[in-house]
Amino acid sequence: MTDELRPGQAEMVRLTTTLRMDGEPSSVVSMQNGHERQGIWLGSDPAGSRGPRLQVDFSSGSARLYADKPQKQQVGERSGNTVRLWSQEYRLHRQWLWPRLIFRVAVGERTILRVRERFRRSGGARVFDTHSDAAFDPVVTLALLLLEGRPDKIRFSRDDSTRL
User: Fold this and answer.
1) Cβ-count burial 137-154 (b if 16+ within 10 Å, e if not)
2) CA angle 161-163-164, nearest 5°?
3) pLDDT tens digits, residue range 131-161?
């Protein structure tokens, strides 16, 4: 991992999330995949993917993470402020400043992701400005954003119900 954090941005609209990082040619896309589940693809076109690389499931009492290749298997879960994913432990440090969500993610003593939430003027999207380690897997970045941002809990106004 490098010493510098790279900027990026994720936008959650209607349970569809896209994460773009400066200097990265592709984006990471998350789409609803069954009740309270988010499938995550690497690449800007999920239709061209052969299935999600990671799925975040909010249906149970605690969030669980599954890999769909070669077969669905649990690869992580969240317990309190610790997320275990592919044998790596990430610690979430939250600071709630209403109406924004601010948190950072650490591995050991090292901060690898910083996130600040803001809202678009339309009120129909939550935008997360991120700074992450350049070597940090963008799929894991998005998984951590989903775990904290809980897009399955987003409420939309009537004006947003007709927009995609």
Assistant:
1) bbbbbbbbbbbbbbbbee
2) 115
3) 999 888 999 999 999 999 888 777 655 444 4
